[in-house]
Every structure is written in structure tokens, then in C-alpha cells.
Amino acid sequence: MATADHVKALIRSHAEGDDERFYAIAMQVAAQAARQGHTKFAQELRNLVDQAKLRAKAEPSGQRTKPVPIIQPRGELAGLLSAAFPKSRIADMALDDALRARIDRILLEQRQRETIRAHGMSPLRKLLLVGPPGTGKTTTAAALAGELSTPLFTIQLDGLITKYLGETAAKLRLIFEAIQQTRAVYLFDEFDALGGERAARNEVGEIRRVLNSFLQFLEQDDSDSIIVAATNHPQILDRALFRRFDSVIEYRLPSENVAEEVMRARLSLLDASEVNWSEALDAAKGLSHSDITRACEHAAKNAILQHHTRIDTAELVEALIERRAAHQ
Ligand SMILES: Nc1ncnc2c1ncn2[C@@H]1O[C@H](COP(=O)(O)OP(=O)(O)OP(=O)(O)O)[C@@H](O)[C@H]1O
Fold this sequence. Notes:
This is ATPase. It is a single chain. This protein has 16 helices and 6 strands. The protein has helices spanning about 5-15, 20-35, 40-60, 95-110, 115-120, 135-150, 155-165, 170-180, 190-195, 195-200, 205-220, 240, 255-265, 275-285, 290-305, 315-325; strands at about 80-85, 125-130, 150-155, 185-190, 225-230, 245-250. The protein has a 6-stranded mixed sheet. The chain is globular. Adenosine-5'-triphosphate binds near residues 134 and 138.
């Protein structure tokens, strides 16, 4: 017979208009009923699912109604969250194999979350992304939203804290209520503003209190949303924080393979067949994905402005060296 988890999973999938998942859970209930000897009920359930699937097929998809998620945060939330609806994909990112495998695993667990929940477990959904600027943390949050067809809500913590020092905990509560109500990816960018040890030592104790509230909210949260905290400064994060996340994912400056992939993707609209990649890679050493992207865009624009269709290695190298100089 159906367990409480099955009923909850059925309601969730119905609310999200995810028919495939709804039918899959119904079939699990049927299988369980059959195992327990309720064969007539199991057969009836399977017939109902088959009929519903046939009806759904006959109905053009454009005419079927799907629930609409909240589009823009309103009221008090409006100042706390900014909404986006990314179309980006993980496949569009240049990632090393280990990082790609970790992100794929999150997506797999998210896509199969009802099955995982039906077995009394939780999918990976509280993520801490750490690493230098421009290495793809924000892009990953957007691509998770794109892959899972959910909105991306970004919370700028530094702004939140300086603006509403006395009320931050109350604001955080509002944010966690939204997390519970609307399945989406919630990105707490610049997370170190809240989680830093410096913050913990804050004399007034205010930020410490806020951090404690955040940790409590995070711990209590059993929603279907994905919570992503991102920071460039993991070394200043309070160690206690790390274990509150399901997954701590480390971002690094790109390896040569990844750097070349970023360059090739960024230059793909022009002819890069004569680029000397080893020279370009030398010039790209130590640069982030973001720096390399910008240098490639600069070199591509130069080519376009000069009515060239081909990327010139010297110009690309110069653009990369300029990016490096900008950091010194
Ligand atoms: N893995 C990647 N593959 C391709 N492009 C990337 C990748 N990572 C970053 N980029 C490029 O760099 C830009 C900035 O990256 P992003 O904002 O994701 O970095 P970040 O790690 O969040 O940086 P910050 O910590 O400064 O917020 C992206 O818009 C994208 O153009």
C-alpha cells in the first residue's frame, strides 16, 4: 500500500505538473501493493496509469496546463532575491572530469528525487561551492536551474547584511519560507560575508547570531529547492559550516585542457584553425575561465573590427597577457 512518502511524492509531482514522475510513483505503489498480496488493487492502479498515459498522449501538449512558478519575488522579498530564468546547460561549461561527474551526480539525484525520497533518503541539494573568482560557481548555479527548469533566485548576502544589520535574521526567515514554497535554485553569493570567521568574531555578536539562524534554517530545510552557497574565501569560513552542506565542491583555475576548451568555445564563430594553442595556453596560465573568456572575446572583436575571419595567435596572446596584467 502507499506509504506517507508515496502520497507526498505524488502530491509534489502533481503540483509541479511532472506527469512522468507522477506515473512512476503510482507504479511503485502498485508494485509494493502486489508484493503485499493486494493484486487486484495493484492491477487496477496499473490500468489507471495506462489509461491516463494514453489520454495524455492523445492531448496536444500545448493544451495541457502546467502550474506556473512565482515569476518575480514580491513585497519584502523583492529587495532580497533577484530572479532569473536561465537556459544555460552544464554541457556548455568547460569542466574537468571530476567536477563534471560531481555536478552530473547532483542532477541525477535531483531528477530522481522522488524515487530517492520514496526510499526515505534525501537527494543532494545543499551545496557549498568554493574557489577563486571567475571559475564557474555562479555559472554552475545558473546551469543547475537551466537543467532542472527552475528559476534561479540570487541572494546578495553582503548587501543584505550591511543594509539590514538588525533585521537580517528576519529577512533570512522570509528567504527560507520562499525556499520551502517555490522549488528553485537559491544562490547565496559571497557567502563568506555571513560565514567568515571574521564575521563570527564580530564584537556586537550580530553576524554570529545571523550565521546561527542561517545554520538552523539550513538544517531544518527539507524542501525540494536547491540551496547553493558560493564563496571565493573558503579559508575564512567557519569550519562548522562545511558539515551542514550535503556537498562541498571545489572550483580551481582551469587545467590546460579546460583552458583550451574555453578558448575554442569562445572563438568558435571565427576560424581558429591556425591558432597556435600551445602559445595561447602559455599566455593563459594562471588565468581564470572568466579572464580567458574575456580575452577571447577581445581577440574575436579585434578580428571582426578588422574584417578578418581568422583569429590571429599574436592578437589572442596579447589579449591574454593584458588580462594577466590587469591582475598585477
Ligand atoms: N567552467 C566554465 N566554462 C566556460 N565558461 C566559464 C566557466 N566558468 C566561468 N566561465 C565564464 O566566466 C564568467 C564568470 O564566471 P562565474 O561568474 O561563474 O564565476 P564565479 O566563480 O562565480 O566568480 P565569482 O566568485 O567572482 O562570482 C562566466 O560568465 C563565463 O563566461
